[in-house]
Write a structure and sequence with these properties.
2 copies of one chain form a homodimer. Chain A is built from 10 helices and no strands. Chain A is mostly helical. Chain A folds into 2 domains: 85 residues, Tetracycline Repressor, domain 2; 122 residues, Tetracycline Repressor, domain 2. The first copy, chain A, is elongated and about 65 Å long. The termini of chain A are far apart. The interface between A and B is large, with 53 and 53 residues.
Chain lengths: 210, 210
C-alpha cells in the first residue's frame, strides 16, 4: 500500500483521510473511474491536493484503500468491535463448514446490496474489465486477499475431513463466490440469503444424486 | 430483434450486414461503447447511416446482433454446417451429462480466449456493469438465452435421474458457468480446458466426501 501515515496530528489526519475516502468513493460512483481525478477528490474532501499526494501515489491507490476502509467499517459495525484492516471478510471456523460459509456469503449479499458500497464498486469493476492494469491491481489488492480467506477455511475443512482431500480449494470457492459475483455484476438475477444458502449446499454436496 | 430484412438485393444486403457487424465490433473494442456511434459504424463499414437505420433502431441493437452473428459463425465453423442463429451454444445430449457439459464449457473457453470475440465482448460487458439499461438488454437478449440451454440440458438430466429432482437447474448451471465468467471478466485467474472440466466435476459431485 502507498499510504504513508504521518506521526503528528493523528486525529486531524484521520479525519482528512476519512473525508478523502468518502470523496473518492462518491466521485467514482458519480462520474466513473476515468473522469475521477486527484484534484476532484481533493476539492470535494476540502483538502489540498498535496495532502493526498503526501499519502498516496495515484487515484487507484486512494480508491483501493477507500474500499478496504469501507469493508473494515462494515465489519466493525457488524462485529461491534475494532476490526483489523483486511480482516473484514474473515471466514469463521465453528467446525460447521456449511453454516460458516453461509454466514459469510449472506453478509456479502448485504454488502453488495448496500448502495454506499454498490455504486463505487460497480464503477471500479467496470473500469477493471477494460483497463487490464487497474483490473489486475483490483484483483491483487482487494479481491484475491478475500478469496484466500475462503481457501484457508476450506483447507481447515479438508484437515477435518469435511472436504475431499483431492479438491483444489482455490477452485472450490468459486462454486459459491462466482455465481453471487456474476448475478451482482451482470444483474443476471436477484441475490438473496436463500440463494446464498443454496449455492453453498449445491457446492458441498453436488447436484448429482448421492 | 429490430432487424428488418429487405426482400430484394439479398446478396448485397447480406454483404452490407456482415460489414456493419464487423465495423460495430471493431469500433466498440477500440473506443468503448459510449464513444461508438451509428455514424462511426457506417463510415467504417462503407455504408450510409440510413442503411443502418433501415435495419436497426439503435447502436445497442446492432451490437447485440453482431454478437449473435459472431456466435453463429463460430458454431458454423465448429460444426462444419449451417447453424441457426441463437442455436450456437446448444448443449449436446448424449446421455453423459459430465461429458456434454465439459464439451460446451471447453468451447466457451476457446471463444473467450479468441481476441475477435474477447475485445468487443469486454467493452460491452464493462458498459453493462454501469449502464443498467444496456446491461439488462445484454442479459435478456444474449446471456440468458444461452443459460436456458443449460437449463434444458439439466432438466433432461433430471428426467434421466442424473441430477437430483430437488435441484433448481437455473441455479445449478451457475456453479460451472459463473466461475468461468468471473475468471474471464475480472481476470482473477487463467481459464483452460482442465479448469472447465474441474468445475463440472465439482458441481456434479460436490466438494464434500461422499
Amino acid at each position: 500500500m502507498a499510504r504513508k501515515p504521518t506521526s503528528d496530528s493523528t486525529r486531524r489526519s484521520e479525519k482528512s483521510r476519512r473525508a478523502i475516502y468518502a470523496a473518492a468513493l462518491a466521485l467514482v460512483g458519480e462520474v466513473g473511474y476515468a473522469r475521477t481525478t486527484i484534484e476532484g477528490v481533493a476539492a470535494r474532501a476540502g483538502v489540498g491536493k498535496q495532502t493526498i499526494y503526501r499519502w498516496w501515489s495515484s487515484k487507484a491507490d486512494v480508491l483501493m484503500e477507500a474500499f478496504l476502509d469501507l469493508g473494515a467499517q462494515a465489519a466493525e459495525q457488524a462485529a461491534g468491535q475494532d476490526a483489523r484492516p483486511g480482516a473484514e471478510y474473515a471466514v469463521p471456523d465453528t467446525g460447521d463448514l456449511a453454516a460458516d460459509l453461509k454466514s459469510v456469503l449472506r453478509a456479502t449479499v448485504d454488502e453488495l446490496l448496500d448502495p454506499q458500497f454498490e455504486v463505487p464498486a460497480r464503477a471500479l469493476a467496470a473500469e477493471g474489465v477494460v483497463n487490464e492494469q487497474l483490473g489486475r491491481e483490483f484483483v491483487t489488492k482487494l479481491l484475491e486477499p478475500q478469496l484466500q480467506l475462503y481457501v484457508q477455511r476450506l483447507r481447515s475443512a479438508q484437515d477435518a475431513g469435511h472436504v475431499r482431500a483431492d479438491v483444489d480449494p482455490r477452485i472450490a470457492l468459486e462454486l459459491f463466490v462466482s455465481p453471487l459475483a456474476q448475478r451482482w455484476l451482470q444483474r443476471t438475477a436477484p441475490i438473496t440469503h436463500a440463494y446464498a444458502d443454496t449455492l453453498v449446499d449445491y457446492a458441498l454436496h453436488g447436484i448429482a444424486p448421492r
